[in-house]
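Hi R.,

Here's the chain you asked about this morning:
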Amino acid sequence: MVRQNDMQGHIALSVLVGLLLVVSPALARQQEGQQPAPDPQKRSTKEGKEDKDKPGGTVGKSKLEKETGTINDRIFEVLPNYGTVENTKNLPPLTAGQKFRLATAGVFDWGAYPFNVILAGIAQAKNDPKEWGQGWDAYGKRYGASFADNSIGTYMTTAIFPSLLHEDPRYYQLGKGRFAHRAYHAINRLFVVRTDSGHERFNFSESAGNAAAAALSNAYHVPEDRTASRNASTFAFLILYDGMNNELKEFWPDIRRKVFHKNTP
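And the predicted structure, written out as tokens:
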């Protein structure tokens, strides 16, 4: 029984790696024959020098940000903010590879580690689940479970399901208007998504992706915790987390400007 519990911390990583090994090649094959999305930031040497002098230009943006039209404007200067689109509504569709790179950037960003440290600490204080007990070994298992929950959920909702269903996982900021309207827009994105063809429909990736992540979490939770109630709680947490994340993505530029007195990232 002790040996079985010791292995549970490793199962989470195995599940995540297995998913990537199985799904990534198939999704990559779907993109064969398609032309890569044009890079709107490409310019001649002369134009590039001119862009550097323009406010809000692409100076300092990573290759991934330039390719996907997004900006990792870290929330509170710490939390990763990949997949956010500012000041534009029309972008080329993402390839499956770009969707996977966005997910990977968010999962393994340095800011994600302290976030999971806090979640594991809360679970440790609550002694949840009780079967893991206390001590550093138990904390490690809780950290692994938290990291796996959030990582698998991110890959499911940002890469795997959006690639299979041809949905755009990027968050397009509204950026202006009444507070209530913008807050509603952020929550509404949990249920309405833009497709790769530019249309809008129900966000299947959000619901199906988090449901799949909750189901997969049974592989690394203790047997006594593999219940419908715990799965529903995990699913609800992932949805709640994504909703809060959308709200932060929407209003962070305002907070950055009014509280931190920074007009640009």
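The longest strand covers residues 192-194.

Let me know if you need anything else.
M.
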